[in-house]
Amino acid sequence: MLGRIFALVVKEFLTLLKDKRSRLVLIVPPLIQLMVFGYAATFDLKNVPFAVYNEDRGFASRELLAAFDGSPSFTRVAQVTHESEIAPLIDAKQVLMVVHVGPNFSADLLSGRPVALQVIVDGRNSNTAMLAINDVSVMVDRFNREWAASHDGNLPPSHVETRAWFNPNLESRWFFLPGIVGILTLLVTMLVTALSVAREREQGTFDQLLVTPLRPVEILIGKTLPGFLIGLAEASVITLAAVFWFKVPLLGSLLTLYTGIVLFLLSGVGVGLMISSFAVTQQQGLLGAFIFMVPSIILSGFATPIRNMPVLVQDITLLNPMRYFLLVLRGVFLEGLPFHLLIQHFWPMALIGAVALSVAGWLFRHRMY
């Protein structure tokens, strides 16, 4: 029995290694994924953009804010002079948080009264928001100890009051479930389309398909529609589950949401057909699909903020349709963004889809025989 198993293992290795493309698949993807995981997948919070709204001119507030300016975790990018300036900064994602020091901060500390430090955080990315709040708490605790040590420990320390916008309770599921819509939609679409042409070639039915009255463009459309419709149904089911089962708010319109889904599916189907046109076997098609999906998910901002990635990696993410789709999903679900504010994310997905489908069509026509 062991000998038969060993012979089967040897045969499978010989079958895999004798093909040049299969050998490439065994070497290149691990290297790519190593680079992606090593440089992009990080939970370290660095250079978080924040703004300061300081209504106090005392030395205590200046000392506290100096600690923020000297920390590698935070970068001050704006100085707020009026409360009305806070909302535009967070809405436009120019800052992740705003540190608000009240007008009596220093006076209250010196007089022994309780003091509050308000930190307004963008809660659309609950994971990043929680990390930022933890860093702020550590800095305030350090300030409290230093203040108490320099004032004989008789004065009450300041404390932090946080308020998260768009996700008041910082529910992780509010952040993750909209992203799951994109990930599972991409997974199903890629698997269906990446295996379509490869399956025909592997089963020997591709030549039979070519002698039918169908033209190449009709065959291409016929290969595209199943993955598109399955992906659309998958996205709808997950959206329903997120809204009605997990109680994730859907503040935007369904028209805006499904515009993003359709454009994303077009780009996903195009990439899947490109992979399928290259693949000779279903195994190659499956490997190609996962080679694309893993970096696509990591570089989308699903779990780690894109702003924390190296500049070169951030530029690479511009070619990733998942990046734009996640922004659309979270914008529609959590922010209720209208259609016109998401056009900046719609057109890159449309462009990627058009290019991918065009390349897939060219490959399909030139690799028919």
Strand content: 5-15%
Count of DSSP-assigned helices: 15
Poorly predicted ranges (pLDDT <50, ≥5 residues)? none
* Rg from alpha-carbon coordinates: 26 Å
What is the mean predicted local confidence, pLDDT? 79
Order of helices and strands: HHEHEHEHEHEHHHHHHHHH
Report the biggest beta sheet as strand number plus sense, adding barrel if it closes: 5 strands, mixed
Shape: elongated
How many distinct folded domains? 2
Q: What is the structural class?
A: alpha/beta
Total strands = 5
Question: Layout of SSEs?
Answer:
Blueprint: H1 2-17, H2 20-39, E1 48-54, H3 59-69, E2 74-79, H4 86-91, E3 97-101, H5 105-111, E4 115-122, H6 126-150, E5 158-165, H7 172-194, H8 196-203, H9 206-210, H10 216-245, H11 254-278, H12 282-298, H13 311-316, H14 321-335, H15 343-366
Parallel strand pairs: 1-2, 1-3, 4-5
Antiparallel strand pairs: 3-4
Helix pairs in contact: 2-12, 3-6, 7-10, 7-11, 7-12, 7-14, 10-11, 11-12, 11-14, 11-15, 14-15
Describe the model.
With 369 residues, this protein is α/β, with parallel strands linked by helices. It folds into 2 domains: 48-165, 3-Layer(aba) Sandwich (abc type-2 transporter like fold), CATH 3.40.1710; 172-366, no CATH class. Helix content is 64%, strand content 9%. Strands 2-1-3-4-5 form a 5-stranded mixed β-sheet. Helix 7 (172-194) runs antiparallel to helix 14 (321-335). The model has no long low-confidence stretch (mean pLDDT 79).
Quick synopsis:
The protein is α/β, with parallel strands linked by helices.
What descriptors fit this protein?
single chain, abc type-2 transporter like fold, alpha/beta, 369 residues, five-stranded mixed sheet, 2 domains
